[in-house]
């Protein structure tokens, strides 16, 4: 599995590190990914998701049931 949030699809992006003298070197901006285990009552089991910190807040706001329904519609969850 790649370094991508399963809920939001957030992945690494690229940019420049800029020094004091304004020299630029390439760098990566990586998402803050966490491996979280959620209980899903409709499935009567735990699921493990790799989600970003913003994805965790999205799950708290929308609810795990709605998020799992979206994942199943996209075919990411078996």
TrEMBL record:
Give me the stretches of Basic residues compositional bias. 20-29
Give the family from UniProt: Belongs to the bacterial ribosomal protein bL28 family.
Origin: domain of life: Bacteria
Protein's recorded name: Large ribosomal subunit protein bL28
One Gene Ontology BP term is: translation
Organism encoding this protein: Bifidobacterium fermentum
**A single GO cellular-component term on record:** ribonucleoprotein complex
Specify whether Ribonucleoprotein is a keyword of the entry.
Answer: yes
Family matches, as Pfam families: Ribosomal_L28 (PF00830)
Q: Which UniProt keywords apply?
A: Ribonucleoprotein, Ribosomal protein
* Record keyword Repeat present: no
Q: Name one GO molecular function term.
A: structural constituent of ribosome
Segments for region (Disordered): 1-29
